[in-house]
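Figure-free illustration: sequence to structure, shown twice.
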Amino acid sequence: MQELLSGYRIKTIFNGITIKLFSFEMSYLGMKSSLKRIVIVGGGFAGINLAKRLANCDPYLVTLVDKNNYHFFPPLLYQVSTAFIEASNISYPFRRMFQGKRNLSFYMGQLLHINLADNTIDTENGTLSYDYLVLAMGTETNYFGMENVKRLAMPMKSIDDALQLRNHVLLRLEEAARSRDVREKEKLRNIVIAGGGPTGVEIAGMLAEMGSHIISKDYPTARRGIGKIYLIDASGTLLAPMSKKSQEEAYKVLRDLGVTIVLNTSVKDYVDNEVVLSNGDRIVTATLIWASGVIAREAPGLPAEVVGRGRRITVDAYNRVIGLSNVFAIGDLCITHADEKFPAGHPQLAQVAIQQGSLLARNFMNMAEGKPLLPFKYNDKGSMAIIAKYKAVVDLPKGFFKGFLAWLVWLFIHIIPIAGFRNKLMLAFNWLWSFVTNDPTLRLIIRPEKKAKT
């Protein structure tokens, strides 16, 4: 009898706990329905920093919308495209990132239209409601109206672009190895890079290193696996946003690596495997890499008057879209003239996006607590660019340095923002192994069924 009573008591206590848990769940569901909904469109530096800083903050339910199911690190795309590191080293799934964050969710889809009157957005996979909308879609490649270039050139804005470029270059080298026609070999092996900014400089240096130390070993019958590398820029210098010392160092290092640098000249067309330059010259090549400009992604549904030059959305000091009370824009997508140190707008750099995302998260918390909003002031921490193996330049607010030390700093700084401990560890290991051996093993044509641009 005592055993039966004990069993009954245990059952009663168990049922009591169940009832309490059930009541808690019902209470939490009710609380969720009263929370403000923040929808963030875009999971780049700006969007992901905003989302992560709002994690587990009860005043808000946050939904991140992106056309990909992963966050990636754009500054290292060129190393993926040159078969130096794996795409997985610089990518991280959103859903893995949001595990354990009770108020964060992910929605896969591309923005189609913003319905300001209804406080909803249409995506390719459905409609979402919001109390606050944050636009953080970043930029896309700008071809300046050149349809042939848009159709045939290789951009460098996404993981897909990087893998496609890797396939394209390797396929052209395989074709060149089989060809017996001298002009055909020249066309297949030559590479033209349009744009002398950090991306153009970095990929030119990496391809030159590949040609000297890696590809020539893979193709022993050729004197150099890669032919001539041309770097074209419309301005009078490389790395235009950086210091004169950085510009001069980049020019010297690339020239010593055998890169042909053509300045004060722009690409005007790409016809019949020939790059047409503004000075009338033509370069025979099967590979045109386009790193010459960007334009903000479209945000259909916003008033035309808030969209300015380069399609950037005009915002106030708090990153709120001008004339709208509950729509914000952050990162490369937006421009503000409210920061007295940058009256023409902030540069489209990762640090600006990171800082804007972080401050907007703080301002959302201030709104929930009835505190005043803080205006955005960009803290310029400097800029850097890698040029080649053991060669980099670093511009700081109080100085400049270059060479091996700058290269080490560049490696360290670029490991820190990579999402996931395993990603950081694998990236560091892969970098070390590739630099020591001068022979990474990632030269894989992993999607040959996808027709390369010719």
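We now fold a second protein in the same way, so the two outputs can be compared directly.
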Amino acid sequence: MLSFTGSRLDRADHVRADPERLAGYMNWKARLLALDGLMPAMDDEGGLAWGTLADASEDAELVFLGLDDGKACFAAVPAKGDASPRMANPQLWSLMATLRPDDLALYGGARSIVDWHARHRFCAQCGGDTRIAKGGWQRDCTACGASHFPRTDPVTIMLVEHEGRLMLGRGLGWPEGSFSALAGFVEPGESIEEGVAREVLEESGVKVRDVTYVASQPWPFPSQLMIGCHSFTDDDSLTIDETEMAEINWYTLDEVKASLAGNGPFRAPPPHAIAHHLMHWWIHK
């Protein structure tokens, strides 16, 4: 199972959409996810810490996360959001490796939604104040009435194969020796396949064919959907975009295997990244 997937919560849209029903769940049994800004608090057993709604400030905006064994779960919107990449926070990087998979999935979803609220307190249409609606899965403008919804940005992350070798790259600013699959945002008007082809061409100068879908992963930094793909190319000549990439190389099956085992020519992505999963998939396909 990919990290950030497999949340145990029932999203319970029927509760979100019914203000009276939602209010009925906001009682002493409801749980409040303990957050320090966007960082999770931990309990004595290394899991996510929870409190009650009484722990929220009087003016807190509360997001209904869903039901956990019939109990309503909420998270409070922090004062500020955070759109910085996950590598900018070493403490968070460490926590991601220690949380149980179901806790990590729950935290990832909660982080994405409360971060969105913290960064969308004003209407993109008229600039007016917005207020929380539908249990936190919508914001409505108090001035013009426009409704705004949490966004998820689609990102293609793709393996490119040529005669049994795999293309991997190191982005600008990455540590020496760290390589991963190429990736980029899908642009308006593009299919997933077109996004893969354009991003690979832009970053490496390589034209791909036969793009196929492998797997996807929600990535809450701040709120992306990583769409893992595989493709082929008939020409391995590289023209690297030096404004985005520090290096791009081709690696054999044995080199990828060795790197995933920790003794190869490059440092592989960590297990909670979809690129790690894609490399294992490629080895065993």
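Summary for the second example: The first helix runs from residue 13 to 16.
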